[in-house]
Design goal:
alpha/beta, Rossmann fold, Dihydrodipicolinate Reductase, domain 2, 2 domains, six-stranded parallel sheet, 9 helices, 27% strand, globular, GFO_IDH_MocA-like_dom, Gfo/Idh/MocA-like_OxRdtase_N, NAD(P)-bd_dom_sf, Gfo/Idh/MocA family oxidoreductase
């Protein structure tokens, strides 16, 4: 990149884009210069709130802006392939909110576009960039809990049923697995990095037929994982990595601010980050560094990891 700072545009000013934009005040190597929305009023309100100088009423106008280096795609899952592809073809780097696509075939199509255009593409698994998650990885790598025997991860909130809303509408790729369950799978992959020998799935459908609650049991030769996601109820929302010598506990793991290390019942180490925002700035800053260095792929969230998450979600969904 020619510039000292990466110039960003946001595509789709929804709830998660608000958190992403809020955290730009903590990003040192990037600046937020544009937002695109199908709704003129919504786009202008978003731009005013976050001090964004340019507002576009079409996504095509954002793609065409020569003063935008990178685009954050924050629309519903089923639009990700089309919009990320269009941004890449327009010469933009793309950070696409998770899940990056809704099935493995779509991901492969998108990766071909990234390769053909020689542009940067990353799935927005922001959790992997949080200091508390990276500290937990460090503890595991240092052998502080010994060999990992169990991963237990759950993520659930009661979501009021709306047949036409994004969460429950099958036409918008609704369901708990794609929306929240991907985070539990991401934790399992991060700390085990291997496919299960066998697995079992229990799914409870909503009235629209999408998965309202999913429990996944992954079995390996030397360990096991229990992963649960739900629109029905508030779950503890912890990830526990349990080893022969102790365990690591991560509350609200998908947005983790802290983690604790235990030996039997005694907490022997504790980490808390001192961030000022939601935590999206860690991901954004790393993408900026990648782009400034000329990299086309993230080392923390490489394409291979996105492939694995897509494979696993498809594997689980086949059991529904």
């Amino acid at each position: 990149m020619k510039h000292q700072k990466i110039r960003w545009g946001i595509l789709g000013p929804g709830a998660i884009a608000q958190q992403f934009a809020h955290d730009f005040q903590f990003v040192t190597k990037g600046e937020l210069v544009a937002v695109a929305s199908r709704s003129k009023e919504r786009g202008e309100a978003f731009a005013k709130e976050y001090g964004i100088p340019k507002v576009y009423n079409s996504y095509e106008a954002l793609y065409a802006d020569p003063e935008v280096d990178a685009i954050y795609v924050a629309t519903p899952h089923n639009f990700h392939l089309e919009q990320s592809s269009a941004a890449l073809k327009a010469g933009k780097a793309v950070l696409c909110e998770k899940p990056i696509t809704i099935n493995p075939a779509e991901l492969e199509e998108l990766l071909v576009v990234a390769k053909d255009t020689n542009q940067y593409l990353m799935e927005g698994m922001w959790t992997y960039f949080l200091p508390a998650i990276q500290k937990a990885q460090q503890w595991v790598d240092e052998g502080r809990i010994g060999t990992v025997h169990h991963i237990i991860s759950d993520f659930g909130y009661p979501v009021p049923f709306d047949a036409n809303g994004r969460m429950f509408n099958p036409d918008l790729a609704g369901g708990a697995l794609l929306d929240m369950g991907i985070y539990t799978l991401a934790m399992n992959w991060l700390f085990l990095k291997k496919d299960p020998d066998q697995f079992h799935v229990r799914m409870s459908p909503a009235q629209t037929g999408v998965d309202e609650e999913v429990t996944m049991h992954f079995e390996y030769a030397d360990c096991s994982s229990v992963l649960t996601t739900s629109f029905r109820c508030k779950l503890p929302n912890y990830t526990h990595i349990i080893g022969e010598k102790g365990y690591i506990s991560i509350p609200d793991f998908w947005r983790a601010k802290e983690c604790s290390l235990y030996e039997v019942e005694e907490r022997v180490d504790h980490f808390v980050d001192d961030r000022g925002g939601f935590g999206f700035n860690f991901e954004t800053e790393q993408v900026c560094e990648d782009l400034l260095a000329g990299r086309k792929e993230s080392a923390i969230m490489p394409h291979y990891y996105s492939r694995k998450l897509q494979e696993w979600m498809a594997m689980v969904a086949k059991k529904f």
